[in-house]
Design brief:
heterodimer, A: de novo design (two linked rop proteins), B: 649 residues, 4-stranded mixed β-sheet, 25 helices, 4 strands
Chain lengths: 195, 649
């Protein structure tokens, strides 16, 4: 009799472990899916920036350095985003992306601050359209980031709860990292609306 | 066969399935017992005090049976729960990816458009759309746990090799699975079969672990133990395979019949047999056909549009033979399909749409039987109407509605009142949440929505749902709170506000959380129906005589003697009670729900006029009762039957 009870308990344990594992897989899929939403918006943002710079070039002739800094920051952010998309939630990739994004935000902020001094540029329709598009994309990034962070948080909590925590480390479920952009002083006033 | 009959049949078939499955389990249990006995004898184990001396030992049998049953049933329940957790799980398991809503790929956009049209035409919320990018064959499948949680997946070949009409035929076929409850039953079947499969999996795991540790074991020289382990492993594997064989037979027998029904329904929806037949012919011409490459493809073989794997015998096929399916759609078909390479279709040459615009002069009278019969049985006029509705939504809005950020704003913008002062109060309420960007976005979207026709309001919500399902749980909670604030900002709840809230919260709740237990005491079906019909009667008329007439007409729609309905006083009719009533009625048998819906239509239509708001309300009720109702066509709004409808059948 004992043997059968032990067997039943073992089976139960196996079923529990398997279900815990699957739960983790589901939570991981969820945050990875959430990341792909950010990725879509980031790509669109990176596509917009060169157009924006191209339009601004004609007016900001003496501000080449600022414009080049924007393009440089954009290229770096784009690379960081590609790496992050390959391994969403991985600590270094997410930290690099957050850093690159903050740098891009800062460079854009400086460019828009300069643009304030050029009334012609401020009244340019293409520029207005592009910057409006950019600000709406920023909103979407922020919203998608929130969804991603929520998903990461429930994944991280999920892998620390007791029966799961036994197998989480052993089966390669490492802690995922939040995507938080450091709010630097220059990042705050990204004034993208001209109207 | 109408929608409700199909639902009842689906229920009965599920019962049959359980019986057949139990038979397969019994056979498996016997086989496991035989193996266990064999293993015990081979081992000569003395661990157990009462080693059986005869083959038949009831005591031992029951223990083995109990353990095996616990294993199979446990795994079945577990797997069913795992696949029921999200409709996307199956598509993702086959290497699918959620289609990017902002895709610029014209083929992917075309697919999204076709699915959205079909959703609006059928009254089902837009499902999640997946692409299996690594699959060059032509195939598709639908997974549906309920109306709010369903997904459609197509292979890359299906996306690129089919013309729009053919793609539409395939999507219509899949929607028919969703509408008839086949998709839900498929999920259950997958879970059940997995329970038997697990025995085979354990067997192969034993063999594999033995293979890895064979060196160490050999050194110990425990030949008896070793051979017993091999014996158990091989036997479990064989039993598992036998079990799976039976399970597949069941799967195939249940599946084939339904595929033919779905083909027929697909043609009925699009009124275009050439589309579906063309898709099937292309499968026949493609050397790869409809076969899938994913290693786990067999698991979901009963979901597919066409046979997903190579079969040895017709008995094991989950689908009827291709030529037979084509011949049913196209009697001229000679049965010859030249094999060869197919070219991806060039999209520029195609004219979007199936049918011409809806003839506006159409004057359909809204008869309860007609409206109820249209549930689950849409026609090409519904699709054409859906296309014309979608065409009136500004393209920019329609594209961006597939993004969570905009979808959330769209839903809130729909709740903004026409009166400027209420509108301002509502926007202030949004600002009070502390999200200035949200308020800004809502008022921006509200501007874009103003150009949409009024009857496109509910379809817009349907379009927004896939994006809303991608919110995080916390964001979804915030959205619910914001909806509540907007509705309360003008201190009274209008018909449309209630409708929208009902549709939205129902679908979000199904996706995000376990269904909340219905608040308050359990209501009886009789009370619930009385309340529902009374409220509809009051909503359509002000004069007491007309109210009574509307209620009478509604009561006449129910089969006599089922239960006694009474017109409740107006003071008893509040929206919370209506919520409770609808939650109760959705649990009743499909046929009764059909009758109740007929009664609802009668209550609304007796005054000879169905306003758009009333039409929306009807669709929300129908949706709440788990019956997706196609949109009322323009003629149906304009002129409904003046006198109480007589039952025609």
């Amino acid at each position: 009799m004992m043997g059968w009870i032990v067997l039943a308990v073992l089976l139960l344990a196996v079923v529990l472990l398997v279900s815990a594992y699957n739960r983790l897989v589901e939570l991981r899929n969820r945050y990875k899916n959430a990341y792909s939403q950010i990725d879509v918006q980031l790509k669109r943002r990176y596509d917009l920036v060169p157009n924006l710079v191209e339009t601004a070039k004609g007016y900001l002739k003496h501000e080449r350095q600022t414009l080049e800094a924007v393009i440089l920051a954009r290229n770096q952010a784009s690379l960081a985003a590609q790496r992050a998309a390959a391994t969403p939630g991985e600590a270094t990739a997410m930290r690099d992306l957050a850093g690159a994004e903050a740098a891009l935000g800062g460079a854009l902020g400086r460019m828009f601050a300069l643009a304030e001094a050029y009334p012609d540029l401020k009244s340019n329709t293409t520029m207005n359209q592009l910057s409006e598009e950019l600000s709406s994309t920023e909103n979407k990034v922020a919203f998608a980031r929130q969804a991603y962070n929520d998903a990461v948080m429930s994944y991280n909590t999920g892998r620390e709860i007791f029966p799961v925590s036994i197998i989480a480390g052993a089966t390669g479920f490492v802690e995922a990292r939040l995507f938080e952009i450091e709010r630097t002083v220059e990042r705050e006033p990204v004034k993208v609306s001209f109207a | 066969m109408d929608f409700f009959e199909a639902q009842e049949r689906a229920k009965r078939r599920t019962g049959w399935l359980v019986v057949l499955f139990s038979l397969a389990v019994c056979g498996t249990v016997m086989a496991v017992y035989a193996v266990a006995m064999g293993a015990l004898h081979l081992l000569g184990l003395r661990l157990l005090t009462n080693l059986p001396t005869q083959f038949w030992d009831p005591n031992l049998f029951w223990r083995i049976a109990a353990n095996t049953l616990i294993l199979i049933v446990g795994v079945s329940i577990y797997k069913t729960r795992a696949v029921s957790a999200s409709a996307d799980a199956i598509a993702l398991g086959l290497g699918g990816r959620l289609l990017d809503p902002n895709t610029v790929d014209p083929h992917e956009r075309r697919l999204l458009d076709v699915v959205e049209e079909m959703s609006i035409a059928s009254g089902l919320p837009v499902p999640a759309v997946h692409l299996l990018p690594q699959e060059p064959g032509i195939n598709a499948f639908a997974v549906g746990l309920d109306a709010s949680r369903s997904a459609i997946a197509v292979t890359d070949g299906c996306l690129r090799l089919l013309s729009r009409d053919e793609l539409q035929g395939v999507v219509a076929h899949e929607f028919s699975h969703l509408l008839n409850g086949d998709a839900r039953m498929n999920v259950r079947l997958l879970g059940l079969v997995h329970g038997i499969l697990v025995i085979g999996l354990i067997g192969s795991a034993i063999l594999r672990s033995f293979g890895r540790s064979s060196d160490g074991s050999r050194r110990k020289g425990n030949v008896g133990g070793l051979s017993a382990v091999i014996f158990v492993g091989v036997s479990l594997y064989v039993i598992g395979s036998i079990g799976v064989f039976f399970a597949r037979l069941i799967k195939a027998a249940v599946s084939r019949q339904r595929e033919l029904l779905a083909d027929a329904a697909g043609v009925q929806f699009t009124r275009n047999p050439a589309g579906l037949a063309g898709a099937l012919k292309k499968i026949g011409r493609l050397s790869r056909g409809s076969r899938l490459l994913a290693p786990r493809a067999e698991e979901a073989s009963h979901f597919y549009f066409s046979e997903g794997m190579a079969r040895f015998t017709a008995l094991m096929s989950t689908h009827p033979p291709l030529p037979e399916r084509i011949r049913l759609l196209d009697p001229q078909f000679a049965g010859e399909l030249p094999e060869g390479q197919l070219e991806a279709v060039a999209l520029e040459d195609e004219i979007p749409g199936v049918a011409a615009a809806v003839p506006v002069a159409q004057r359909l009278s809204l008869r309860p039987t007609v409206a109820v019969a249209s549930i689950g049985a849409l026609g090409d006029q519904h699709i054409a109407y859906a296309q014309s509705l979608l065409a009136q939504i500004p393209q920019r809005l329609r594209d961006s509605i597939r993004e969570p950020w905009v979808a959330r704003a769209v839903v809130l913008a729909l709740l903004l009142d026409g009166k400027p002062e209420i509108r301002t109060a509502q926007l202030k309420a949004l600002l009070a949440i502390g999200d200035a960007k949200l308020a800004e976005e809502v008022s921006r979207v509200a501007g874009a929505l103003r150009t949409c026709p009024v009857e496109a309001r509910l379809p817009v919500v349907d379009l927004a749902l896939p994006a809303l399902r991608r919110l995080s749980r916390a964001q979804c909670g915030d959205l619910r709170a914001a909806v509540g604030r907007l509705i309360r900002a003008d201190s009274r709840i209008g018909l449309f506000e209630y409708t929208l809230q009902r549709v939205l919260l129902r679908h979000l709740a199904a996706h995000f959380g376990p269904r909340r237990p219905p608040g308050g005491p359990q209501v009886e079906v009789r009370e619930a129906s009385s309340l529902l019909l009374s409220m509809l009667a009051y909503a359509g008329a002000t004069d007491p005589g007309e109210v009574a007439r509307a209620f009478e007409a509604a009561r006449a729609e129910l089969s006599p003697g089922r239960f006694q309905l009474t017109l409740l006083p107006r003071s008893d009719c509040d929206l919370h009670a209506l919520d409770r009533a609808l939650d109760r009625l959705v649990e009743t048998a499909p046929r009764l729900r059909g009758e109740i819906l007929g009664a609802c239509v009668a209550a609304v239509a007796t005054d000879g006029k169905v306003t758009i708001a009333e039409g929306e309300m009807l669709r929300a009720i129908s949706d709440s009762l788990g019956c997706p109702m196609p949109p009322l066509l323009p003629g149906e709004h304009v002129q409904a039957m003046a006198r109480p409808a007589t039952r025609t059948g």
